[in-house]
Here is the input.
Amino acid sequence: MRRLQESAEQARPVWEQQPEHDAFRRFLKAQGWSAITSIYVIRSVQGCDLKDAVQIYDSYWHEEQGRGG
Here is the structure.
């Protein structure tokens, strides 16, 4: 659990500095985090519930696939 909290704390300034989904998606991808870690980070940083965090993660993944990445 500590590693998840540390990941969220690492991501929080990125979201607060630029609360824009495309930039945050790129940040998450660059970290190489698992889906579980990324969903936890989204939930923590964006203040949403688990269902919304999973939907956001899915939208990031689909966006990434659309870009060929």
Notes: The helical segments are 2-17, 21-31, 35-46, 50-66.
